[in-house]
Every structure is written in C-alpha cells, then in structure tokens.
Design a protein that fits this description.
The protein has about 325 residues and is mainly α. The chain has a single domain, classed as Farnesyl Diphosphate Synthase, CATH 1.10.600.10. The protein is built from 16 helices and two strands. The chain has a two-stranded antiparallel ribbon. β1 and β2 form a beta hairpin. α2 packs across α6, α4 packs antiparallel against α6 (about 110-130) and α8 packs antiparallel against α11. About 45% of the residues are buried.
C-alpha cells in the first residue's frame, strides 16, 4: 500500500539525514574544525527537496534506494556548498540560513570557503566510489547506513565496475549542472545583474542555470539509478525538471516578498534590498504567481505518460509550487 505523501516525505527526510551523517567525515577526525563546520553546513536543516526529487525519480525506474542515496547525497552536498559560498560577504553577505547563523558567521570566512570546497569534492568522491546504476528493476530494501565511518563501508558493496561509461556520464551530468554552464554560471549572472532590469528571457536564462540546473540533475541522476526508460522518456523527465526548477525560483521570489524571516529560515526581503532582478520585480506579485501556476501545469502535463509511477514527482511539483504538504 502506497504511503501518503506527508508520510513518504517524513520517512525519507529522517532516513536520509542518517545517510548524510554517515557519509560526512566525523567531527572528531582531523582536521576537526573543518569537519565540524562541514557537518554544521549540511545537517539538521532544509527540506531536502533535491534529494526527494531524486528518490521520486528513482521510484519511477525501480531503483534501489541505497543507490539513490548516493546520488541524492552528492546533489545535496553540492547544494549545501553553494549556500555556504553564496552567503559569504563577497557574494550575498547573509547572516542567516536554514534558521541558524550562516557558516562564515558561525566559524569564519576562511573555514566557510574550505567547507564549500570540501563538500564539492566529497560529492564527486561519492559518485566515483559507489555503484550508482543498474540494468534491472530492483526491489526496495531500504537499507539504513549507521552514523560514522561504518556507513561508508556498508555502502562500498555498490562500488561500480559493471558500467563505468554510464557512471562517468552521471558524474559529468552533476559536474555540468554545478559549474559555469550550470549553477555557478547562474550565480555569476546573478551577481552581474544587480541593479539591472532584465527581460523575462534573460531572467529565465539566469535561473535555468542558477536554480534549475541542480534540480534537473537530481531528477536525472535518480532516474539513471534504475532502468527501463528510453531517450524520449528521459528527455521528458529532464523537461519536467526544467519547468519545476523555474517554478521553484518564481515561488522563492514571491515568498521573499511575502514571508517573514522566521518562516523562510533566511533573511526576508534580501533580494529587494540588494536591488536584484526577480520575477516579482518584473511581473508583480500576481504575475509571478500566475507564472508559477503555468509552469506547474506544464510540468504535470510532461509526466502524463508515466502514470502512477510518477505520482511522487507530481506530489513534489505540487509542494514546490504550493509550498504545502
């Protein structure tokens, strides 16, 4: 019997937190301060939307949960590193993230810089050293790694020798999504756009890279952990990710104007204060809401051929746009 969406989210969030605790270096291992700060930046915060998208895509293709754990962790580590760097004084200069002091405030600028570097490196280490993909439809054993170094060892049975070319493609997928043609490039455009009036296509181009690239990667990596989809179906999943990634940013822009700091877990109104172009500044509140609803409808239409197997992806699309369970 399929669990209701709220229960599915809660169980995956709780279990995935344990996965992250096991995959991150222990705080008592040298260099202790860096490892402590890495754990501070990643653990106990955020809704884990990108990992949840990876798990939902993995369910669509019958992937083993333990395999999706690795790609979901890699994506979340990239996301966490980007937040650490984005919050630093040389970029957005923010003091609050996920309801607690930002990494450079809690520690210092140099440590925060190294935290981001280390999280990025760890993400690609995980993709390189674990078996990520398969050729059959798998059951869902739902293995739970234990905290500490044992978690890494318990997952090494998935070390990949069987399909190195496909695994390299997955590593490349995350690298492109993270770099100058993806998230980092989008951030560069964002920083260069302060005080400028962008057109809608320019704004979309920026956020397809800055926000959308990693969301698309999470879905595609989850789908690559199983099998059974052809090229056209994979393209539809990628298009779904593009649409829902844009919708995510549109809704974020609306919430930045309407929600308070306690609700957001980060400083509210920061984009307006910094004179950044947003969907709200371009379209107004109602126009931005209408755009989010349109993207939501188009995203759901993209999943129409997948039937019940894509139900979790549909529910996550609802959550991203409606921000409720």
């Amino acid at each position: 019997m399929r669990a209701d969406f709220q229960s599915w989210v809660a169980s995956h969030q709780a279990r995935f937190e344990d996965v992250l605790r096991g995959l991150l270096p222990r705080a008592e291992v040298a260099p202790q301060r860096l490892h402590e700060a890495m754990r501070y930046a990643v653990l106990d915060g955020g809704k884990r939307v990108r990992p949840l998208l990876a798990f939902a895509a993995g369910e669509l293709v019958g992937a083993e949960v333990a395999r999706v754990d690795i790609v979901a962790a890699a994506v979340e580590l990239i996301h966490a590193y980007s937040l650490v760097h984005d919050d630093m004084p040389c970029m957005d200069d923010d003091v609050l993230r996920r309801g607690k002091p930002t990494c450079h405030v809690q520690y210092d600028d140099a440590t925060a810089l190294l935290v981001g570097d280390s999280l990025q490196a760890l993400a690609f280490q995980l993709l390189a050293e674990h078996r990520l993909n398969g050729h059959a439809r798998f059951p869902h054993p739902n293995p739970l790694p234990q905290a500490g170094e044992g978690a890494n060892e318990s997952l090494r049975e998935f070390h990949a020798n069987d399909d190195a070319a496909r695994q390299l493609e997955m590593i490349k997928l995350l690298a492109v999504a993270s770099g100058s043609r993806g998230m980092a490039g989008g951030q560069a455009i964002d920083l260069a756009s302060v005080g400028k009036a962008l057109t809608l296509p320019e704004l979309e181009f920026m956020h397809i890279h800055k926000t959308g690239a990693l969301i698309r990667a999470a879905i595609m990596l989850g789908a690559h952990c199983g099998s059974g989809l052809g090229a056209m179906q994979m393209n539809k999943l990628d298009h779904f990710g593009k649409l829902i990634g844009l919708a995510f940013q549109v809704v974020d822009d609306v919430l930045d104007c309407e929600a308070d700091t306690a609700t957001l877990g980060k400083t509210a109104g920061k984009d307006a204060d910094n004179d950044k172009p947003t969907y709200v500044s371009l379209l107004g509140i109602q126009g931005a809401r209408d755009m989010a609803q349109r993207l939501h409808r188009e995203a759901l239409e993209t999943l129409s051929e997948f039937g019940d197997a894509a139900q979790r992806l549909r529910e996550l699309a609802d959550f991203i746009v409606l921000r409720k369970f």
